[in-house]
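Teaching note: in complex prediction, the entire set of molecules is handled at once rather than each chain in isolation. The prompt given to students was simply: 'Predict the structure of this complex.' The entities are:
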Amino acid sequence: MTTHTDLTKAVDLSRKPKPLYARPTLLRHQSGLMNKMGTQPRITPTDAIDGVPVSELVAQYGSPLFVYSQRTIEHRYRELQSNLARRYPKVQPAWSYKTCYLDAVCRTYHKEGSWAECVSGMEVNKALRNGMPMNKVVFNGPAKDEPTLLAALKGGAVVNIDHFDELAAIEQLAKTHGLFPKVGIRLNMATGNTPRWDRFGFNLDNGQAWDAVRRLQAGGRLSLNGLHAHFGTFILDADNYTIGATKVTAFVNRLKRELGITLDYIDLGGGFASQNRLKTQYLPGDQVTPSLAQYAEAVTRGLSELDYAEHELPTLITETGRGLIDEAGTLVTTVLANKRLADGRRAVVVDAGVNLLYTAFWYNFEIETTAPVVGVPEPTVVFGPLCMNIDVVREHIMLPPLPVGTRLLIRPVGAYAVTQSMSFIHLQPAVAMIGPDGQHAEIRAAETLDDLVRNERVPEWIEAGPQPAAGRPATPGRPGTPVLPRLTPLSAADRAIRLN
Amino acid sequence: MPAESLAVSPKAGLTTTIDGAQARPALKLPVVPPAVAATVEGALNSYTQVFFARSPALGLALLAATLVVPRVGLWGLAGVLLANAIAVALQMDKEAVRGGLLGYNALLVFMALGGAVSELSAGALTLGLGAAVLVVLTHVALSGALSYHLRLPALSLPFVFVAWVVMAVAPHLAGVLGVQAAAPLLNATSTGPVTGFLSALGAVFFTPLWPAGLVVFLGLVAYSRIAAVHAVIGYAVALFVESVVFAGAMPDAARAFIGFNFIMTAVALGGIFYVPGRASLVVAAGGAFGCGLASVALAAWLAPLGLSLLALPFNLVTLLVLYALAQRPAEAAPRPVAFTGVSPEEALHYDRTRVQRFRTHLPVPLRPPFRGAWVCTQGNDGEHTHRGAWRHGLDFEVQDDQGRRHTGSGAEVTDWHCYRLPVVAMAAGTVVKVIDGLPDNAVGTVDTRHNWGNLVLVQHAPRVFSMVAHLSPGSIKVVEGQPVAAGAALGLCGNSGRSPMPHLHVQLQATPVVGDPTIPMAFHGVQVDGVADVPFVAVEHLPQRGQTLQALTRTVPMGQVFDWEPGDRFELTVFRDLEPTGETSRTEPVVAEVDLLGAKSLYSAERDARLWYENRGDVFVVYDYQGPRDSGLFAAYCALTKVPLVEAVRLGWTDHLNPRRLGRAGLAWFADALHAFGGKAEQAVIYRAARSGEHLRVHGLGRPGRWQRSVATEAVLTPGVGVKRLTAVVGGRRLVVDWARAAEGGPR
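The expected output is the structure of the full assembly:
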């Protein structure tokens, strides 16, 4: 905390600012409205999260602040799990680590019974750290490093192969270490949504997936025990899942019929939309986003024709991330300044920008105040605190004039915001979690300058100044001259990725 | 008089590993060559098989009793050895010889012969040799035919037939007395109630003297109190029949054999072939009474042929009762024992424990008719429609974790959580009736013309039909006549028929007619929420309103914990308190085996201990344990009795342990005979499972009782890996077992 700059402290909140002159706004009168207030959005303030006053949270953990609701996390997870379980006999959700891999969040999911879905060595190690045994880890992704891959194969993780090169690499690895691992392959296919997702896995429609299975069999080292298919992201039309699952089902049945392969699992990925609103989206999330029950229905309807006896059905693995956690996350931010842009729009500067909300590039977040604000809402641009043109949180939102120091809640930000946030210009803020009984705690402390520079190194020649030290030749690289810069050694994982 | 064909005794079962190694010997005599041990064991078991037992210790007592009249005893012993040798020479089943199954008829024949032979003439020896061959052949032929065609044991019929032959031939040989010479040996000589009983018991071994009978009786008491009590009951019935029914005027030919026929019938029916209990007591006493009438009738019929009764009344009455009661269409009391060749006490507690653990009142176990968790909204005798002839109906709906059964206002059927969720078959069966096409009602309205709406009726067993009703139109996936598996989708939950809001109605009925009365139902092996402090797994459960039910769905990692295939080897490190030798731990290797009938077990050669288990898909079950209480497998018996293969955050269940496996608590030894008719000796253990890190910990607690020893267990399981550590504290003795897979290299 010592070096974290709390921008709100730059503005002395204890001093009542003298009211500034603000140019009056003229709003065009629209006919056909009930009254002169018409359908102006009414801002209903939200002063508490899960019953905990926002002021209390900010006083304790500072602003900006990410807040997660454990109650919402658990509720959404149970809703997904039970809705799937009522429709398909064997269900196993796996928490998508990349969506939010804070330990406290992951462990909440694991406690509920979720496995871990990881797409890098770092994530796998994080899952193991969170108490997941390797055989409850689903290892996906196009870039699996060799040490983690080996550990995953040895430990019985669910490994889904993304491309032929990986298939060959795993075969080689298995041969070297005398393993005969079970693996899955990832499929992609047209399910009616755009853009078509064909960058991951093997294409089902053009026969590549079938070739991959034959290739896998021909290798003699690996055996196929599952399929993975991820149909896209933020899929608002649940029917895509039915189409996709039906195609997968046909493929599974063909594998059984023609090759005698029976599967242990079918992993249908994630992609469930949250209540968030894409920039391209006309209607708000609560009107268009299918419920978890509707997604569950769509997925399992596609699996209804599996040619398996009831008790031999493959386990359905899901990797839903965003659909589970987005609504559980809130970003508390504070108004730093008001502005009037040259085109007449009002602008407000807040202390959380795209450094924390990379997701702001594709979402129009909801922004709420924590206390009633007087004044007529008008079109407003919300800027973040970065000295960068791109730092726009909302390009257009109807907001009343917001005095400096006003707390705002940006939601839903549970998915990706924390894992994608960066220490850019400002240090990263604290993350808090509110427990089921209203207790709360910091689950990640705010970043400090020490944290930021911990891995930085300054080469000696810079430290030493412009003159070479006595006794040292000016030219580096000669025998007996230890002048190479001390750079951070590459980790084995990094090296593997670079070699790939 | 055994029933080797009825079932395989757990002790006598042929157990082989897949690499063909033969099972352990039943008697361990390390210093004696195996052939001698087998000979001695076969001989002694031939004595105990007269009482259907396999117990060399009892055999010694009985051998002693026969030697009260040395001539009879020595002839009997010689006959047993001779017959067993002949059976071995003829390549008969060696395990049967060892169990005494081929020797006991020879014993009886030769004891009869011993009573009749006056000198060791060539004729007598020839007769003996011939009788030995004949009795072996007769037994093998008769028991083979009876067991194959009628599933009945041969009992002592071979003795009766061979004795008739011997008695007919004997008078023509030098050195052998007349036909009736041996007959008095079966005739109780004493008349007092006690000495009469004892001499009748002695007469079973052709030694109708009360001291011999006393030895037999004491041996019988040591072996089985239940059998001893039934022996007394049999003799009491005999006295009643003789003195009251026939008022002392029973024909001599019948009375001569009266005592032991009654006794044997009562013992056989009361504890050997049926689980001891009130019903078997009635059957035993009734069978003995029938013996009285049969004796008189048979004596009259056999007199013109010059044949004596011998053990014929006992054989015919027992076989008649066994065969007739086997024709009952459903299981009923007295229940047949699961294994013959074990003591009545063993059969009693095995059966009691099994009933407690697995009892179902229906011929088929039923799973819930849905997937996932549903809540019961109207139970039996419900407040709405489960009345009168339809009182055994059950209604289910889906409730979310906030207790709501619908979204929004619930004004549309689609608002209801359960609407159009899959409905599945409760057990395997055949679809006998489908009604489809009735519309889903608007919420709040009902269709009283079509009470059950769209429905599927499935037959699971004779007179067991299940109906799921109010299904959504067009959703039914099955057709009449189609076989369905348990859990197979039938249709989707809807709101047709007399249903104001979407829900699922289920009921059982005895007939395939829609609208017929309901019969009681229950679900088996289900997880129930809302009853105990933790969700619990019930063996059999009739849900009440407000309770949430779900089928157990195995998770793959939990299934892997008990993924034991035949040939797998484990290394148990056993720590024990009170180790007499001062050692603190020892290593006990264990191997997984499967026998010819498919029963899976873990076997510890070091402790000669065996644990029978099965991974039943949704639950792991230990069926039984045999061995000493210091084997690591004993801890597994107590701690892993039943483990649902689910990784719930918390879960509870109860199970029962066989008191005979836990060791005796004080007076329990004497109480077995009483337990047959009342009281409870099984140890009820409450198990609780909780996740802790990567482990699942299962704690078991059984409180000490009058007949129960205290049991406390802990099992630490690692899902996806296996058993990690077991602790069992039984009656204060603590056993801790670290469980590990043996290193690779053993034969698989």
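Point out the following to students. The first strand of chain B starts at residue 374 and ends at 378. The CA atoms of residues 371 and 615 of chain B lie 22 Å apart.
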